[in-house]
Write a structure and sequence with these properties.
The structure holds three protein chains of three kinds. Chain A is mainly α. Chain A is built from three helices and no strands. Chain B contains twelve helices and two strands, in the order H-H-H-E-E-H-H-H-H-H-H-H-H-H. The radius of gyration of chain B is 21 Å and the shape is globular. The chains are: A mainly alpha, B mainly alpha, C mainly alpha. The interface between A and B is large, with 70 and 80 residues.
């Protein structure tokens, strides 16, 4: 006799979800119209013809954020078993956890101090009246 | 019970939950449109059915019969798959949300949860980390600059807030000593709600939940003024509907999680002292759960119309420099609390 | 064949099949996409072994972290104008010998190990036991892991910073 574990239920649920998605996709394919034209198949770029490759270069910061995330993700995972058994160990468990958290916070402080968490900030230049007047004058002079 | 019987039983329960889920997702769209209308002093949907009550079905049906336009530059297989990854992840999370305590139905002891996994909360976290893929692949495979920018912004945003979400949950685990959602709810008996005991963790979790669901004020990935539609610029027909439904499903799941982890789940303080019948108590408790979830949904929509969108650097700063240290402080706070009061 | 076995072979098939696609795919993003299924298959096998915590960690760290990092790396690589790559076969013989030795080593270890089949049933949840072990017997390793991660963090960030300049 086989028992259905809770994970088995999750597997059934996932299979159901996939079946459901496939059915809707198929249904959608049956009833939707399909009249493609050249214009429709172009990528949207505010009505202009698309310029260059769509896969543009990115700021390295996104990659650095993913790196930092990966490290902290592992730390979170390590912290969960500690959190679950914390109450059983009293002061000893507290000290163990705090040392771990301190090491973690140290890494965080390092990143912060070194500016790896900084993102480019827009620096809007509000127009000053004098500037506007001067630029007008210079334009007049050009004329 | 034989295996077949158990499987059939489980499947029936799942189907019931899936149908309820779809109805709630559909009506949360309606709910949002009505509240938005109310916030902006206009009528909102009121033509389809009585007071527009059939509007969500009309919307979905309309999207189902629309032409599906895929640009030539797109990578077709991934472009098709991406929205369904998003939808699948959103719905798979429902498997572990407990809607109420066990009830006795036709002689069976029915747990009001699809799968009572002993690591339920970690399952939720794992699926949340999967949610990034739908958006990243959508952005990458569309072959559009707007989509790619929206996709990559969104994934960076989601992973940043996932960290503080994980640390906030660690605070909850310190008190509950279990990863099972039902036990976490049981640990919040009476007024021992986690929102009361660890308000910092509650705030960091709620903010992270907003960021994870890409809701305003964190909807940078689809910021209309700069990115057109973000990662779903090139989507139409049912694929767009899939993203749309996934967003609302995520919003509901986030509300359910906030309620389960911090607002006591189905608990009504001291209801067992009133001496009500068992069935009545369970019904009241399920009602309380639904009430709390609806309140959280209202809160989501309320915030949408109250707080303007953040700039990207502000968003990252809030994630890493405010929420992350705060969630660490929260763990320390809970640990000290347990030491002092022997909770 | 038992039901359990069918599910095991299903997961094994997913793992190996998608790993094959990872190696043979010409498109890096498609390769990354199939890697997703490889990780899932492995997580499924962990669940079947009763290692629930490990399965979830597999998904959280590998799928949610490492693969995202890989994808970001692919998207950020500026030298690649299109993401199609050409995979050619070079040094077929040394590779075959190397893999053969590795494969043989794994198989021989698998066959010669005196597997300790635990008479106790699988505990309902492994997470709490892992926590207990981490706090008591392996406490030094637990803290050292923290240090290791700190070093990894500092190293990775400084490499990324140097590239930027």
């Amino acid at each position: 006799m086989v028992m259905l574990t809770e994970f088995g239920k999750i597997l059934i649920f996932i299979i159901l979800a996939i079946v459901f998605v496939v059915i809707t996709l198929f249904l959608n394919k049956l009833i939707r119209p399909n009249r493609p034209t050249y214009e429709k198949k172009k990528v949207y770029e505010c009505g202009e013809n698309p310029e260059g490759s769509p896969w543009v270069k990115f700021n390295i910061r996104f990659y650095v954020v993913a790196l930092i995330f990966l490290i902290f993700d592992v730390e979170v995972v390590l912290l969960f078993p500690w959190a679950l058994t914390y109450k059983e160990f009293g002061v000893y468990g507290f000290v163990v956890g705090i040392i771990f958290l301190l090491i973690l916070a140290l890494g965080m402080a390092y990143e912060w101090r070194k500016g790896d968490l900084e993102w480019a900030r827009p620096e809007p230049k509000p127009p000053i009246l004098d500037d506007l007047l001067n630029s007008n004058k210079s334009e007049e002079r050009k004329k | 019970m034989s295996l077949l019987e158990t499987v059939i039983f489980a499947v029936i329960k799942m189907l019931v939950i899936v149908v309820v889920m779809f109805l709630t997702v559909a009506y949360s769209v309606y709910f949002e449109r009505k509240i938005s209308a109310w916030a902006q002093n206009r009528m909102g949907p009121n033509r389809v059915g009585y007071r527009g009550l059939l509007q969500p079905f009309a919307d979905v049906f309309k999207l189902l019969v629309k032409e599906d336009i895929v640009p030539d530059a797109a990578h077709k297989p991934l472009h098709t798959l991406a929205p369904f990854i998003a939808l699948f992840v959103a719905f798979a999370t429902y498997a572990v949300v407990p809607f109420g305590p066990s009830i006795n139905l036709f002689g069976y002891d029915v747990k009001l949860v699809v799968a009572d996994v002993n690591i339920g909360i970690l399952y939720v976290l794992a699926l949340t980390s999967l949610g990034v893929y739908g958006i990243t692949f959508a952005g990458w495979s569309s072959g559009s600059k707007y989509s790619l920018m929206g996709g990559i912004r969104s994934s960076a945003q989601m992973i940043s807030y996932e960290v503080s979400m994980g640390f906030s949950i660690a605070g909850v685990l310190l008190l509950s000593e279990s990863l099972r959602p039902i036990e976490i709810v049981n640990a919040q008996y009476g007024w021992m709600w986690n929102a009361v005991l660890q308000p910092i963790g509650f705030i960091t979790f709620v903010v992270s939940a907003f960021a994870e669901t890409n809701r305003l004020p964190f909807d940078l990935p689809e910021a209309e003024p700069e990115l057109v539609g973000g990662y779903h610029t090139e989507y139409s027909s049912f694929k767009f509907a899939a993203f749309f439904l996934a967003e609302y499903a995520n919003m509901i799941i986030a509300s359910c999680l906030i309620v389960t982890l911090y607002l006591g789940g189905w608990q009504i303080p001291y209801i067992d002292k009133l001496g009500l019948g068992e069935t009545l108590t369970v019904i009241l408790q399920v009602g309380a759960f639904i009430f709390k979830v609806v309140f959280m949904l209202f809160f989501f929509i309320w915030v949408r119309w109250s707080i303007p969108r953040f700039r990207y650097d502000q968003l990252m700063n809030i994630g890493w420099k405010v929420m992350f240290p705060l969630s660490l402080v929260n763990i320390l706070w809970v640990a000290v609390l347990i030491m002092i009061f022997n909770l | 064949m038992e039901f359990y076995d069918i599910i095991f072979y299903l997961f094994a098939l997913i793992t190996i099949g998608s790993a094959f696609v990872v190696v043979t795919s010409r498109n890096i993003v498609y390769a990354a996409f199939s890697l997703l299924f490889t990780f899932f298959g492995v997580a499924g096998i962990y669940v079947l072994l009763g290692a629930d915590f490990l399965a979830i960690v597999q998904i959280m760290v590998y799928v949610g972290g490492i693969l995202i990092l890989l994808l970001f790396g692919v998207m950020l690589t500026n030298k690649i104008t299109s993401v199609e790559i050409r995979t050619g076969t070079v040094h077929l013989l040394p590779a075959a010998i190397g893999i053969g030795i590795l494969f043989g080593a794994i198989i021989s270890v698998m066959l010669w190990t005196n597997w300790n089949i635990s008479p106790e049933p699988i505990p309902p949840s492994t997470t709490a036991n892992i926590g207990r072990e981490l706090i008591t017997n392996y406490v030094l390793i637990f803290e050292l892991l923290g240090m290791l991660l700190l070093i990894a963090l500092i190293g990775a960030a400084s490499i990324a910073r140097r590239d930027k300049e």
